[in-house]
Amino acid sequence: MAAMSGFLTILVLIFLAFACFVIYFIFKQMEFVLTATNLYRKMVTRQDAMIKLLIDIRDGTKQLDSEKIPETFKELFDEEGRQISSQITTKDRMTRVTAGLCPKCGGKVSSTDQNCPFCKINLLFARQHLDEL
Ligand SMILES: [Zn+2]
Question: Domain map of the chain by residue range?
Answer without folding.
Answer: 1-63, 66-132
